Amino acid sequence: MLIKLSARGLRPLSEVSPSSFVGRICEQPEHPSTERATEILLVKEPLAMLPDGFRGYLLHHEMRDAGRRDSYVLAPELTYLAHGDVVRVEPTRRGLTTLYRRTSNSNSFLLTERCDNFCVMCSQPPRPDDDLWRVHEWMKVIPLISPDTTEIVFSGGEPALLGDHLVQLLDTMKRVLPRTALHVLSNGRRFSDAAFARSLAEVHHPDLMIGIPLYSDLAEEHDYVVQANGAYDETVRGILNLKRRGVRVELRFVIHRDTYARLAAFAEFVTRNLLFVDHVALMGLEMTGFAKTNLDALWIDPIEYQPQLVEAAWILHRAGLNVSVYNHQLCVLSSELHQFARKSISDWKNLYFDECAACRLKDDCGGFFASSTVRRSSGIAAIS
């Protein structure tokens, strides 16, 4: 079942705050009063009276007289919320956004919607707005996150456009959540500035990976995909600067009609020039954002590019590189690629089709993006 991270429909039971606020879900009415200021009490079963001191209250049921400021009945699609989750409550629009889920391995923080690329298949189309408020909000969220969280993803837009604010976020993650891996998705261009790459490296985060897309071995093809002249040169220089400073780098290659033909050539280029990168992800298309808008031009059935994908994966693997195939179903992949396939789709936008119910490999398969209902491979079938 898909999880809805943001929804309206909160029903206020009391006076509400004039502005949004962030808090961590707590299911313990007896929680120490000294620790309630940043906690939002989740009430699943009726209580005679709500305890005081919590920042807010979210109820699964109606209550005649809540008697506490910022008390709301949850919208039905948000009743999955549980102890330790972190949310933003938006009283004026009767909305709630889930910012972090304690039991999920797919927590991603959107740091900004600004970007200096304009990729033809971008799943998060850029906006030019000044949204620095997001950074300030995440700085409030980070201390509320469980220290047992396995990984957090920083995404955009282009996080590196935040400059020193990104460095500050990384430093905060290192201090507050030192055991949590951090994966930053960036186009890499800003790291062509050697001083900026150095400032990020000098945070010395213990488990940091920068995921950078490179869409061709040819500069003109990469620049076309990202719709930015000179982007290829800046991206490669950014990769070199990061690796020179000891920062781990993942290369990301999204496969569509404009990129699939040079998959093998791209793999050869990487093995000859970027053999020092730490991971290469060969990725299926997510059909949302600009990818949905441009789908007729971009779509190619994954069945059609299996020869190129097989060749590229084995070129990289034989060279000793760590290679993964993301966002593909096992039934559409050549059996030679199953060892590289990963369950990479975030749980909140992951689904399976009816055919999958009878598939013996369903538990090992990553399934589909919710947007896959727009168009799907002809190769989808249960493996018996």
Summarize the entry for a quick read:
With 384 residues, the chain is of the alpha/beta class.
Labels describing this entry:
TIM Barrel; Glucose Oxidase, domain 1; single chain; 9 helices; globular; alpha/beta; 8-stranded mixed beta sheet; 7-stranded parallel beta sheet; 384 residues; 22% helix
Task: Give your account of this protein's structure.
With 384 residues, the protein is an alpha/beta fold. The chain folds into 2 domains: 6-100, Glucose Oxidase, domain 1, CATH 3.50.30; 108-373, Alpha-Beta Barrel (TIM Barrel). It contains 9 helices and 17 strands. The model has no long low-confidence stretch (mean pLDDT 96).
Layout of helices and strands:
Blueprint: E1 6-8, E2 11-12, E3 21-26, E4 39-43, E5 56-59, E6 71-73, E7 86-90, E8 95-100, E9 108-110, H1 133-141, E10 151-155, H2 164-176, E11 181-185, H3 194-201, E12 208-213, H4 219-226, H5 231-244, E13 248-254, H6 263-273, E14 279-283, H7 290-293, H8 295-298, H9 306-318, E15 323-326, E16 350-351, E17 368-369
Parallel strand pairs: 3-4, 4-5, 5-6, 9-10, 10-11, 11-12, 12-13, 13-14, 14-15
Antiparallel strand pairs: 1-8, 2-6, 3-7, 7-8, 16-17
Helix pairs in contact: 6-9
The CATH homologous superfamily of the largest domain: Aldolase class I
Q: What is the arithmetic mean of pLDDT?
A: 96
How many individual domains? Answer: 2
Radius of gyration: 23 Å
Task: Order the strands across the largest sheet as they lie in space.
Answer: 1-8-7-3-4-5-6-2
Number of helices: 9
- Element-level helix/strand string: EEEEEEEEEHEHEHEHHEHEHHHEEE
Largest sheet: 8 strands, mixed
Q: Using the alpha-carbon principal axes, give the shape.
A: globular
Poorly predicted regions are none
